[in-house]
Write a structure and sequence with these properties.
Blueprint lengths: L4 E6 L4 E7 L5 E8 L9 H22 L7 E9 L3 H18 L3 E5 H13 L5 E5 L4 E7 L2 E7 L5 H11 L7 H14 L14 E2 L2 E2 L2 H12 L4 H27 L3 E5 L6 H13 L3 E3 L10 H13 L26
Parallel strand pairs: 1-4, 4-5, 6-11, 11-12
Antiparallel strand pairs: 1-2, 2-3, 6-7, 7-8, 9-10
Helix pairs in contact: 1-2, 3-9, 4-6, 5-7, 6-7, 7-8
The structure holds adenosine monophosphate (AMP) and magnesium ion.
Magnesium ion binds next to helix 3.
Length: 337
């Protein structure tokens, strides 16, 4: 007889990851690997090849680390979208194979909703506004009438993608976000009062929406004009993060909610976390952020959402198990409290 663990497989983009929750939905750290091209951005087919190569190894590692066997798994969850088609298909194929071999149910889940649910579970917040800041996505999301609704989002590229592209132009390989954070800190260390020395950049809030490509071009221009790279990194972060926090604050005001939850890889950034904490303190709200291993893409969040979905009666048949590159956050009905 199959056990009651849920295995989650994440493969939307650069990261291939296997994670678990136990029968009570309690998360266990994922086993993951991220493709890091020497030059250029993430090529979907190269990332897919990377995922195929690691599939067996990651599956074995996550079982070994948790001291379980395949027979302990009762459900297979996988990211059904949104993401890069070639990458999504590898995760879905791995999930279908394991499901068929072990004769256990399959559940395809929404990657964006998984970021929210692992955050709620980790931080114990109830009904937050999610500021979802990742490589490919930047959205401000709230639960309203049985769906997670997108109240505002980027109109061009994701904030992480903007940081990565800016970094790449200046010789820093993927992922560029953490290096920009480091450079900004170096600037702060040598310039204790940087607000007096901030460089001017466009501020890209459009109502509840955001744009980042103009900001990136302007930052590139500042570097070309000879401004210190560290100073540009600092100013770029300040402008991009302030724009996100402004939209998140307006979402709090419009919905009357009182919690912010950060998610996605850019939520690893301490300055963004601090800005959110300051904004929330100013309006009697609370700011929450899961541990960094659950901010970046991970299989555990997929397992957690699979656990929630199957406990509320949903399952994916083989016929329904195709991937959806364009899956929207608000296309998934939310039936759990
Ligand atoms: P995700 O797409 O959610 O897996 O997140 C990956 C993105 O997070 C990449 O664009 C990274 O550059 C970005 N990222 C990771 N760590 C940081 C950090 N400390 N500061 C800013 N961006 C980061
Ligand atoms: Mg993500």
């Amino acid at each position: 007889m199959a056990g009651d663990w849920v295995l989650g497989i994440e493969s939307t983009a650069h990261t291939f990851s296997f994670g678990l929750v136990d029968g009570d939905g309690v998360p266990r750290p994922s086993e993951s690997d991220t493709i890091r091209p020497d030059k250029g951005g993430i090529h979907p087919r190269e990332a897919a090849d990377h995922h195929v190569e690691l599939s067996t190894d990651l599956f074995q590692r996550v079982l070994e680390k948790n001291d379980i066997t395949p027979q302990d798994i009762g459900t297979i969850a996988y990211s059904q979208g949104p993401g890069m088609g070639a990458c999504l298909r590898i995760g879905a194929a791995a999930a279908r194979t394991i499901s068929t071999q072990l004769d256990i149910p399959l559940i395809g889940v929404n990657h964006c909703v998984a970021h929210i649910e692992i955050g709620r579970e980790q931080c114990g917040c109830d009904d937050p506004i999610l500021l979802y800041v990742s490589g490919g996505n930047t959205q401000v999301i709230a639960r309203l009438e049985g769906r997670y609704r997108v109240l505002g989002e980027t109109l061009d590229i994701g904030i992480g993608n903007m940081l990565d592209k800016f970094a790449r132009k200046h010789g820093i390989p993927f992922p560029g976000g953490p290096v920009i954070e480091q450079k900004a800190l170096e600037w702060l260390a040598t310039n204790p009062n940087p607000s007096l020395k901030g460089l001017e950049l466009p501020y890209a809030v459009h109502g509840m929406d955001l744009t980042f490509s103009g900001l990136m071009s302007a930052a590139n221009r500042l570097v070309a004009e000879g401004h210190p790279f560290e100073a540009v990194c600092w100013s770029l972060q300040e402008h991009a993060f302030a724009a996100c926090i402004e939209v998140a604050e307006r979402a709090l005001a419009h919905t009357g909610k009182s919690e912010i939850l950060l998610g996605g890889g850019v939520a690893c950034n301490q300055r963004l976390r601090d800005m959110s904490t300051i904004m929330c303190a100013e309006r009697d709200a609370s700011s929450h952020c899961p541990p960094r291993m659950y901010c970046i893409d991970n299989g555990t969040m997929i397992a957690r959402l699979g656990w929630l979905e199957t406990r509320h009666g949903r399952q994916t048949t083989l016929v329904q198990s195709g991937v959806d590159q364009e899956m929207r956050t608000d296309s998934t009905p939310i039936s759990w409290p």
